[in-house]
Each structure stands twice: as structure tokens, then as C-alpha cells.
Design a protein that fits this description.
By secondary structure, this protein is an all-alpha fold. The protein has a single domain, classed as Rhopdopsin 7-helix transmembrane proteins, CATH 1.20.1070. The chain has helices spanning 10-40, 49-65, 67-76, 83-116, 127-146, 176-215, 221-256, 264-275, 277-288, 290-297, 306-312, and strands at residues 155-157, 164-166. The chain has a two-stranded antiparallel ribbon. The radius of gyration is 23 Å and the shape is globular. The termini are far apart.
Length: 347
């Protein structure tokens, strides 16, 4: 039996190819826009925002290096390439997946540290520290991706035959320790850390909110700022975890049971759902950040009204997120400056 031939029907192969093409286009365009917006405001970026850029790079890397080959294989009704190409594809998927979950974990920790003292004007995380953390996520992912190459674990074709990943069904004995360690350090522990960090941020925001309401009966700008950052960060993490959890559960099930008992169509669904994780972050920024949406619409190649595009060059707020500071006009026509006015970033 040819392990690289599709176990799906020709119609399902073609449909899978179109789905992956759609995901690839959305992911590449969306994450490129995030990087373009970051480049435009690089001189005004805060250190935590570099983690957002790093996350976009991981999603873009997965879409560029993996999805085109998967689309071509689906439309060819078999995996294109032999064992070496299969190993490359599995390594790339594992590498970018681990890099993404570690980046989200680090981002949650950084957001928690920043929220400890909301009123402090100083950056609590330095550029040097953030760069070290970004480098750590890549090195950590490289180490884990190389383990199956070095003999701890194994890469192989997916049951439906159109892509490759970790050979879950073949690691019942010699790779059991690898799988358990993998799920512990790259899914369970990061998920717990993310939940704890954002739960801590929620409590801190609530305490700050109650104090401000007792003192001045109005919500300070700094609380609104971190509340919006909190929503975006939580959605980023939830999107990734929800996409990969079904795939992880099916993979664990195949480790303890006969993987051949799972119909190819069933094994296809969690895999396709996991691949969509590279799409959600740009969509979250677009729908939950008015400034990011405005800047995307005002890009030269997307702008419909040239006069509006030209006028936008004079706008001071070019950030990737919402400005939480609007001048208030009292009864008289004098503009009042709001103290402590800040810009919300995606970091």
C-alpha cells in the first residue's frame, strides 16, 4: 500500500485543496499587513509589541513554507515528494506550532508583568529582554523540532495521505515518552500559564477599576488601554488553543488506540482546523482595533479615495491599535487635554 496516496475521495481532495488555498491567502495577506503596519510605526513601537510581530512572523512562515505544498498535493490526489519532503513538512509544522504557542505564553507573561503597576510611566520590559525572549521562542522550537530527527519521536504521513506531521500512530512504544513530554511542555503547561496570567490581569484591572470608581467615579484611560490589550491578547491565545486542541486530542487517542480505526475523513477535520490558526490573529486585530483597520484601509494600494489617502499622511495616530484618548469639548469651545493620554498597542 502506498502510504503517500490520498485516502480521500477525489472530490474531497479538491475541496481540501481549495480550503487550504483560501487559508493560505488569508494568512499571508493578513500577517503581511500586520508586519507592514509594524514597520510603518517601528520608531514608536513599545517593547511588548515586538512579540506581536514575532507571532505574525511564525504564522506567515507556516503559511509560506507549508500550505502551497499541501494544496498541490491535494489537487494531485497524493503527497508530492518522498520521505525527505515529508520530514521537511512535518518538521516545519511542528517548528512553527511550538514557536507560536511559546510566543503566546511569553506574551501572556509580559502582559501580566506590565499590568502589575498600571500607573507606572516606565517600560517594565526592556527592548533587550523582549529580543532575548523572541530569540528564546525560536531556539526552543528548533530544539523540539529536531528531536524526531535525532531519534526521539518520528515524522510521517497523516492518515488521510495529503500532508505529514508527527507519526502519532507509530509512537505507541518507542515514542510514548516523547509524546507525553511534548503535550506537557508544549500544550498543557503553556495553557495553564496563559490562563493564570490573564486571570491575574483580570483581577488587577478589576481592582484598579473599583478604586478609580470610588475616587473619581470615572474609568481612567490606563484601565481602558489595558482592557483593550487584554481582550486582543486573550482572543489570540484562545484562537490558537481552540484550533489545536481537537488535533491534539485525536493524536492522543491514536496513541492509545488503533489509529486505522479512525476514518480518513474524520482525521482530516482537526488537521484542517489546526491549519486555520494562522489566519485568526490578523482578523482579531482588524475587527478589535479601529486604528489598525483605519490604517489598512488607508494603504495606497487599498485606498479607493486618493484625497482621503493623501490627507491621512497628516494624521498623527499611525498606531496598530485604538487610541484611547479623545479630546473632550466642554460647554465652551476650548479643547481640553486629557492627562496621561496613551495609545493602545497590540503588544
Amino acid at each position: 500500500m502506498d502510504i503517500y496516496s490520498s485516502a480521500l475521495s477525489p472530490a474531497l481532495d479538491i475541496g481540501t485543496g481549495f480550503y487550504l488555498l483560501f487559508v493560505a491567502v488569508l494568512s499571508i495577506v493578513g500577517n503581511l499587513l500586520v508586519l507592514v503596519m509594524a514597520f510603518k510605526r517601528s520608531s514608536r513601537m513599545k517593547p511588548p509589541e515586538l512579540l506581536t510581530v514575532n507571532l505574525a512572523v511564525t504564522d506567515l512562515g507556516a503559511a509560506v513554507t507549508m500550505y502551497p505544498l499541501a494544496v498541490a498535493s491535494a489537487w494531485s490526489h497524493r503527497w508530492l515528494g518522498g520521505d525527505s519532503v515529508c520530514t521537511y513538512y512535518g518538521l516545519a509544522g511542528f517548528f512553527f506550532g511550538v514557536a507560536s504557542i511559546m510566543n503566546l505564553t511569553v506574551l501572556a507573561i509580559v502582559r501580566f508583568i506590565v499590568s502589575i503597576n498600571l500607573q507606572s510611566p516606565k517600560d517594565k520590559i526592556s527592548w533587550k529582554m523582549v529580543k532575548i525572549l523572541c530569540l528564546w521562542t525560536w531556539l526552543y522550537a528548533v530544539i523540539w523540532a529536531l528531536f524526531p530527527i535525532l531519534g526521539w519521536g518520528r515524522y510521517g504521513p497523516e492518515p488521510f495521505g495529503l500532508s505529514c506531521s508527527l507519526a502519532w500512530g507509530q509512537m505507541k512504544e518507542e515514542g510514548f515518552s516523547f509524546v507525553m513530554t511534548l503535550f506537557s511542555f508544549n500544550l498543557a503547561i503553556p495553557t495553564i500559564i496563559i490562563i493564570c496570567c490573564y486571570f491575574g490581569i483580570t483581577i488587577k484591572l478589576y481592582i484598579t477599576y473599583k478604586k478609580s470608581m470610588n475616587n473619581s467615579n470615572r474609568i481612567p484611560n490606563i484601565v481602558k488601554l489595558h482592557r483593550r490589550l487584554f481582550v486582543i491578547a486573550v482572543l489570540n491565545s484562545m484562537g490558537f488553543i481552540c484550533c489545536w486542541t481537537p488535533y491534539g486530542l485525536v493524536s492522543l487517542w491514536s496513541l492509545f488506540h488503533d489509529s486505522s480505526s479512525i476514518p480518513p475523513e474524520v482525521s482530516l477535520l482537526p488537521c484542517m482546523f489546526a491549519k486555520s490558526s494562522t489566519v485568526y490573529n490578523p482578523l482579531i486585530y482588524y475587527f478589535f482595533s479601529q486604528s489598525f483597520k483605519r490604517e489598512v484601509k488607508l494603504l495606497p494600494w487599498l485606498c479607493i479615495n486618493p484625497n482621503r489617502c493623501h490627507a491621512s499622511n497628516n494624521i498623527a495616530d499611525n498606531s496598530m491599535a485604538d487610541a484611547d484618548c479623545k479630546p473632550r469639548v466642554p460647554e465652551r469651545s476650548t479643547l481640553v487635554e486629557i492627562p496621561g493620554c496613551k495609545t493602545v498597542s497590540l503588544g
